[in-house]
Each structure stands twice: as C-alpha cells, then as structure tokens.
C-alpha cells in the first residue's frame, strides 16, 4: 500500500543542545549529545593521541548501558604542527535508565579515560511509535544578533519511504545557510530502529527578540518496502556509451539519497516500469568528484535526456570502488547487470 505522509516539526524558541566533552591525560571521551534520552542510542568516542593504547575493556559500561555497536579506526592528526597518528573507538550506546549516570573510566592498556557524568532524560515517548517524525534543535540559546546559531533538523524514518523530500528551513528576519550534505545514520529509539537523515543550517538573526523558525515539512510516500527517489535525467560525461553501458544520470531536488553503492533498481519512465542497475557515488575509477546517481536501464529505452524518472531501490549489490582499468570496471558492471536481471525477474511489482 502506498500512503502519502506529511509530517512537520517547528520551534518557536531556540534552545541549547550538543556540547559535552572532557579530556583525560591520554584518552579523551566525547558524547555526541547532551542531554541523552533513555531509549535513544547515542555515540561515545574515545580518542587516544597515540597508536600504542592497549586493547580497551568496555565491560564497565555494561552496568548502565547496552552496547549496540562498536568500531575503531586509526587517524592522523596535526598536534603542535607535527603529524601524530592516533586511534579512536566509537560505541553506540543506549542508557538502561534515566538520571545522572556516570560513563565510567575505561582502561586502554596503561591508559584510561576520565569518567563522565551524563544527564539521561526519561524518554518522552515522542515519535517512537511513529513511522516517520522530525525533530529540530538549535544552539546556542540565547544567541547574539548576527552570531551563528546552529540548527539541526533530523528526520527519523522507521519504514521504507519513496519520493521523500524535506522542505528547507525558513525564518523571517534571519539569514539561513545550509551546512554541507545531509548525513545519514541508524539509531534506536524506543526499541525501534530508525534511519536518521540529518540536515544542518547556520542561522544568523538580523535583529533582537524571539526568532521563530517556520515548520519544516517532510513529504513522502510510505511504501512499506521500497525506497525510491525521483528526478530529471541530465547528461553525464558521456563515457557510459563507450563502456557499453549507457546510463541515465538523475538530478534530484532535495531528495534524500541512499548511501554510495551499486543497487538493483526498478525505474519508472512515462508510467512504465523497467529493471535497472544504479550506481550512486563519485566514480573513483575516473578520479571524478561529486556524487551522481546513474542508472543503466536494462531495456533499450533510447535517449532519456530531460525526462522525469523514478528509481526504486530493490537490493544493494555492492560498494562502489576504484578499478585498475576500464576493462575491469566493464566486466564488473556486466556482472552487476546480470545479477540485477536475475533478482528483478523474480520480483513481482
Ligand atoms: C552498475 C554500475 C556500476 C558502477 N560501478 C562503478 C564502480 O564501482 N566504480 C566506478 O568508478 N564507477 C562505477 N560506475 C560508474 C561508471 O564509471 C560510469 O557509468 C561511467 O563513468 C559513465 O559516466 P557518465 O554517465 O558520466 O558518462 C558504475 C556504473 C554502473 C551503471
């Protein structure tokens, strides 16, 4: 069943959010929000300025938190003008109760992090039952005229949606600039898994008083199963035909694009469905930059330039990657095409 959904969120008063961070001698600990809400997952990052920190023992965290996911990476930082390699661990946690809860000191071999007290608010239940909902946060509060206010809009999607769009932020008496690309992550809320799309703005108030931000609106079709986007076919670099796989490059306005990768897709052109195989990414084999959404339509549909096309993502096939040469890329795309064809032939739409 396809259901149209429209939800909105607005704020009349700007309130503070995001802040915490505490340094220890060697291992720093940072939390991606403050306060934390019980039932909502949040990320904690432990960062060591060296790569020799020992293996961490995260067991003390388990008394008050569930550990949902854990990852680590090494990083290069410039400290006092000198390159230093460090290491960080990111944990996705969920608090087992509300109140002031201590994130205990964690031991990393001979190093340790300082304890950090978190303000864990009880879950308001807000949105956790909803398939789709929006939140808006602003900081700092109060803010000064002409000083930057960071406004973060988060769209929580617990089901598959199609043609999803988020309206841009609007406020009278303020200059608004969008900051970077939308971010995407998974988050648990009320025992439910949501995909969170985050959009950030810098807002500069032009006069003193209360600044009211107009409602931010999400519109989309609740598909239950398949996520789709819509746009206009534009010209690419025209290498596709030489490769033997002509592609239709989709230009979308404000649509939320799935993560980079290759997908088996169903496309709709002039009301007709066709199978397709879609690459979302930067085409690293050619050293290109900027994300494109390009689809090789399995049927011969001729020149699609200027047409409206809808792309529904059926299954992710693989990551986009850099190939040694064009022949290796061509062989891989042929394998992708066959796989998509096999998958789509078993699909009843
Ligand atoms: C199914 C499919 C998979 C692709 N996978 C990759 C990939 O892994 N790495 C890459 O650099 N480009 C990949 N591409 C993008 C091609 O490089 C791109 O289609 C070609 O450069 C043509 O670009 P153009 O439309 O701008 O002419 C893929 C394209 C398709 C259709």
What's the layout of helices and strands?
Elements: E1 3-11, E2 27-31, E3 36-37, E4 42-48, E5 56-57, E6 65-79, E7 82-95, E8 99-103, E9 107-108, E10 111-112, E11 116-121, E12 132-139, E13 148-157, E14 161-166, E15 174-189, E16 192-205, E17 213-222, E18 227-234, H1 240-243, E19 248-251, E20 261-269, E21 272-281, E22 292-297, E23 308-318, H2 326-345
The structure holds flavin mononucleotide.
Describe, in plain words, how this protein is organized in 3D.
The protein is mainly β and 349 residues long. It has 3 domains: 7-14 and 126-216; 27-121, Immunoglobulin-like (Sandwich), CATH 2.60.40; 227-345, Riboflavin kinase-like (Elongation Factor Tu (Ef-tu), domain 3, Beta Barrel), CATH 2.40.30. 7% of the residues lie in helices and 52% in strands. It has 2 helices and 23 strands. The protein has helices at residues 240-243, 326-345; strands at 3-11, 27-31, 36-37, 42-48, 56-57, 65-79, 82-95, 99-103, 107-108, 111-112, 116-121, 132-139, 148-157, 161-166, 174-189, 192-205, 213-222, 227-234, 248-251, 261-269, 272-281, 292-297, 308-318. It has a 6-stranded antiparallel β-barrel. Strands 2-4-7-6 form a 4-stranded antiparallel β-sheet, with no helix packed on it. It has a 4-stranded antiparallel β-sheet with strand order 12-13-16-15, with no helix packed on it. Strand 12 and strand 13 (148-157) form a beta hairpin. The longest helix has 20 residues, at 326-345. It is globular and about 60 Å long. The model is unreliable at 1-5 and 12-25 (pLDDT under 50). The structure holds flavin mononucleotide (FMN). Flavin mononucleotide binds at residues 236-240, 243, 245, 247, 249, 262, 277, 279, 283-286, 294, 296, 320-322, 329, 333, 336.
